[in-house]
Amino acid sequence: MDCIKQGEGTTFVREILDRYPKEQRFLLAILQDIQKRCGYLPREALELVREHLDVPLSRLYSMATFYKALSLKPKGRYAIKVCDGTACHIRDSRGLVDALEKLLGIGPGETTEDGRFSLETVNCLGSCALAPVMVINDVYYAKVTPEKIAGILRRLEGEDDGDI
Amino acid sequence: MLVCCGTGCLANGSHGVYREFEKMLKYADHSVKVKAVTKATGCNGLCEMGPIVKILPDDIFYCRVKASDVEDIVRETLAGGRPVERLLYTDPATGKRVKSHRETDFYKNQQKIALRNIGEIDPANIDDYIQRGGYRALAKALDKMSAGEVIDEIEKSGIRGRGGAGFPTGRKWRHCAGANGATKYIVCNGDEGDPGAFMDRSIMEGDPHSIIEGMAIGAYAVGARKGYIYIRDEYSLALKSMSRAIEQAKERGYLGDSIMGSSHSFDMDIVRGGGAFVCGESSALIASIEGRIGEPRAKYIHATQRGLWDKPTVLNNVETWANVPVIIDRGSGWFNSIGTGKSKGTKVFSLVGKVQNTGLIEVPMGISLGKIIFDIGGGIPGGKAFKAVQTGGPSGGCIPGSMMDLEVDFESLGSAGSMMGSGGMIVMDEDTCMVEVARYYTKFLAEESCGKCLPCREGLRRMLDILNDICEGRGHKEDMDTLLEICEALREASLCALGKTAPNPVETTLRYFREEYLEHIQDKRCRAGVCPDLTEYYIDESLCRGCGLCAKNCPAGAITGQPGSAYIINHDLCTKCGRCRRVCKFGAVGIGGGAVV
After folding, report:
1. Best B352, B441, B504, B526 residue to mutate vs chain A (most A CBs within 10 Å)
2. How far apart are the C-alpha atoms of B343 and B413, rounded to whole Å?
3. Which CATH class is domain B132-336?
4. CA B86 from centre of chain
5. Cβ(B531)–Cβ(B435) under 8 Å?
6. Which of A126, B45, B55, B447 lies 20 to 30 Å (CA to CA) from residue A84?
7. What dotted CATH number matches A78-159?
8. Using a CB-CB distance cutoff of 8 angstroms, which residues of chain A are in contact with residue B294?
9. CA of A103 to nearest chain B CA: how many angstroms apart?
């Protein structure tokens, strides 16, 4: 519950909810806003959504597990997405995932224990000319090779003072 | 001066180039006689060569421009009127540099309708769009045509849905216009989920008003007052560009009440997708807009009768909507004259994979596959042999190199076992394993299957199990028949198009590349060196010059030898990463494995 623990409380959830009429069709948009803010969907936030829209929590769970843009688990501070679209796949995106798994000790869908990195594969970012592509916190890395990965991670850690 | 700021060029640093131009021009204005205007445009298509800068009116086309090149361009081209030679595009066939992009094979063979404005206008500026004839078709429809005449015109043009199935757009509109009920909806499908496809992204980013205008015309034709555009969540730039364009269109009165003084009112909103491939299916997309999980439903009642919130709905894809204003503006006769018997107009393809000129292209229907891949695409890079092209996204099929004369349209691709789909075209060379490609698509579809109907949910999983076995050396000969049997069940019994078309990758690879399956199953060998369990690298003594580059690059320390004499790979240590093969300058690292070695 990082974003809630950090003294922010749940006001931000109420702010998001206030922007939308109490209609079911805004459910996905509301969840996406919370996801964007926190990097995942904290249970406390979901409880508030449930009250606001008067839908069972199980419905929210089904939404959260159906849509890839939503996550019930926190993402790392550096969210690494390796594109595994077809163009990237045939230009060896698998090699990138292997290299990242080795370096970080986590598989796709997991977050490192220190909360710094999370790894996931995504289906095509529509940047096939740059294949294979990797995106870290919305920064695109084009034509990545397994050999370049360690350097990219090192540079990120350089920007980072080590505190989470 | 036009700086391409599509996602591809942006990732290559085009925004830095744009800023540098702005900065330089501020200071250099005294030496430039005509005040230069720099515009950030949408994607030019030739993403491989990005960032791209075009300079009008001389039509000079610069590739791979860096911020440090800006000074030279301002001094030489803008002030001196000379092109900067080193930044011009080199024709790979002749080795000559060409000045204008229109002279390149890549652009010469294209015909742009849906992409007419992209790369020419600043998508953030509605006046750019209007200057190039934008919203003229909407005015024509509202002023001079009845709703019925608009539908007639679209029907006569022969345009078919660009999203994949190719349903005649005019007929769809007519159904909806004739449906009962005062409330109707228009929906634009911008949930481009096919891996290896980015046609819709480029249009949404680079020419958002063409979609808005198309939808406003469609709304007038069927009598809808409200529209939604469903955009894939991953496309942040497209979301930004579309919402800005909608605001501008509202301000100018192209959206809202009494559009351009007529009695037609139409408004639209954006819905962000949630990242589920199945939401590209129309009934699933509608469920998602309604705020539910995107599960398709059986379609004995069409969306044109009962769609969004059970109201009659027209749902078309981004590219279809972008075509509409041009058809109304230039007339159905003109559009109908382009293309083949049953497939009219042009189609946008994203040409990606193992091809020289990766990028976005728009070609008339009926052009041959060979022309697309070799003339426009510039062939296969690195002197490798061409193997196959995959069209139609994950539910499409692989077409072998022997069928390059195939004329591309809805029917011909279908009869080859593939489909048009939304327009992904992925080129594969000798280093691509066709069995692994089938496994890749099956895995994708198994993950993206919503799980509602059994054939799709369980069938894809079983197919994936079998393909995993084959790729990992546990395949049996009867597996091929089992695969085909499951394929048939999926095609017959699945609820929606995702399951019904899911067999295509497996069926086409089995049909055209059966020998690769047999090699995997009987010889336990992967000729492309993709399946690690069936691959063994070896160094050909007669080709090895003993440079040691492979040993230096081997992450496992598995290569040993003395400089000057042939190196050897220790198979117990080798992790089969293939790096030695990639770095060897003499082609001395070969692929063996299985029963052959």
Report:
1. B352
2. 11
3. alpha beta
4. 30
5. yes
6. B45
7. 3.40.30.10
8. 66-67
9. 13
